[in-house]
Design goal:
469 residues, alpha/beta, seven-stranded mixed sheet, five-stranded mixed sheet, 19 helices, binds pyridoxal-5'-phosphate
Length: 469
């Protein structure tokens, strides 16, 4: 669109807009670069004919006020953090896209101290010599899992790559076809094997594998018998898999170690929450896995970290591997992880202190009671056209753990009459703070399991704002 020439003279100058009192006030809290950027952008948009220009002198004052308000809002949005808090009203407890596990207060406290003070990260305070950062969690991990030794890296994907590279480069790794998994975010076992330089020896069929398949595939050049927990899917029906325990005699006979990629890294029995049991780390070690790998931020409920636990001679090999240095965990993660592990060791009820476990443990009746109160308060403030109902539903563990199992919950279902649910859902995502909900059957579905009680008021405010549009 080309602008009539005479309109240019009506475009306010950048300096005039910046001089306006509200903008000057804004500069106390909002960085100058953001204000300048948005002021220039709005002036440019007028020049390009993309932003209306008011020529009527009567309306000019109100127009300038509007412009200044608009600049203020845009500048605040431009200056805000990119990574910021979100209200998770989906009921997916370990949502990978929303940061998986929330940390326990003790973990945050310890992390803050290690972040703001010098520490003995790699310092042996007894001798004054250089120490190892891995020492800070080694004993705790051994105690909790029953492993001889343990080491940590950035995440479980890194743990798997390090183990495969160190133990099986240029050699064969035996794996059942039914365990050739893909985890979200492009972690695919066949590609990871290739990256680590080992040869995949696929055995069995999609649904079944037998001990004789493992026996037949184990030869001179076999470096590992790998088991991968099928975290995010289940093969049901006519199935058979071989446990680490059943592989043990073969491993003993041939000297080929068993590696178990557990994924979720559960330290407590999920049955206490009414979920199907996931293999715990200590079970896998006790059964006979020589090496287990798992995540710190899935069911363990700690920071993002990958744990490798198992036989001391194998861990010693990893400590000498060059890759370990490139996968080195940061001190803040270590601090949070040590504190989280201490909760498991020291607390009578870790499932009450670890936020992820606490959310999984919330009873259906307590969520129902909260959903009732919440929906009643919403009824008072939402447009009358919005129908609000309670519905039985299922919360999810998330992060690919216990995929087929839901936890009974009560959903607050909002019928967004007139406005499409998807449009309201998008408005919620852009809310302050952003709110993530589920959409189903044309309704917004809110699961309070993942919403801390103290956030309910804020959630209601963002909902009302989004539904008013
Ligand atoms: C989640 C998972 C991984 C990847 O772990 P990250 O901590 O996300 O790197 C690897 N293997 C299995 C079986 C998993 O479930």
């Amino acid at each position: 669109m080309t602008l009539p020439k005479e309109h240019y003279q009506h475009i306010p100058s950048v300096n005039a807009l910046l001089a306006a009192a509200p903008i000057q006030e804004l500069l106390a809290s909002c960085p100058r670069w953001a204000v300048l950027k948005e002021t220039r952008a709005i002036v440019q948009a007028m020049r390009d004919g993309l932003e209306p220009i008011v020529v009527d002198s009567q309306e000019k004052v109100a127009w300038h006020e509007r412009l200044v308000r608009e600049i203020g809002e845009r500048a605040k949005r431009t200056a805000r953090y990119s990574l910021r808090r979100v209200i998770n009203a989906t009921g997916v407890v370990l949502h990978t896209n929303m940061g998986r596990a929330l940390l326990a207060p003790g973990a945050i406290e310890h992390m803050t101290q290690v972040a703001t003070e010098y520490s003995n990260l790699e310092l042996d305070l007894e001798t004054g010599e250089r120490g190892s950062r891995y020492e800070h969690v080694r004993e705790l991990l051994c105690e909790l899992t029953g492993a001889e030794d343990a080491i940590v890296v950035n995440n479980n994907a890194a743990a798997v790559v390090l183990c495969l590279s160190a133990f099986a480069k240029g050699r064969d790794v035996v794996l059942a076809r039914g365990e050739l998994v893909e985890i979200g975010g492009s972690f695919r076992i066949p590609e990871i094997m290739e990256l680590s330089g080992c040869n995949l020896r696929e055995i069995g069929t999609t649904n079944r594998v037998h001990l004789r398949d493992y026996e037949g595939a184990t030869q001179e050049d076999t470096a590992l018998l790998l088991k991968v927990h099928t975290s995010n899917y289940r093969v049901i029906g006519f199935t058979k898999s071989i446990s680490a325990g059943e592989l043990r005699p073969l491993a003993d006979r041939t000297g080929v170690p068993i590696m178990h990629d557990l994924g979720a890294g559960c330290l407590v029995d999920l049955q206490m929450f009414g979920l199907p049991s996931e293999p715990t780390v200590q079970e896998s070690i006790a059964e006979g896995a020589d090496i287990v790998t798992f995540s710190g931020d899935k069911l363990l409920g700690g920071p993002q970290i990958g744990v490798i636990a198992g036989r001391a001679d194998l861990i010693a090999q990893l400590k000498k591997h060059q890759l370990l240095r490139t996968l080195r965990v940061d001190k803040l993660c270590l601090a949070a992880f040590e504190a989280t592990l201490r909760i498991y060791r020291d607390s009578k009820e870790p499932e009450r202190e670890i936020p992820a476990l606490r959310m999984l443990g919330l009873s259906a009746s307590s969520i129902e009671a909260r959903a009732k109160t919440f929906s009643e308060s919403l009824r008072g403030s939402l447009p009358a056209s919005c129908g609000i109902q309670l519905r039985p539903g299922q919360s999810q563990v998330g992060a690919g753990a216990a995929p087929e199992a839901g936890l009974p919950t009560t959903l607050v279902a909002i019928d967004t009459k007139g406005t499409q649910a998807a449009i309201v859902e998008a408005a919620l995502r852009r809310g302050r703070p952003p709110v993530m909900v589920r959409v189903g059957g044309g309704e917004l579905l809110i699961d309070l399991r993942t919403v801390p009680e103290q956030d309910e008021t804020l959630l209601a405010e963002v909902l009302c704002a989004a539904l008013a549009v």
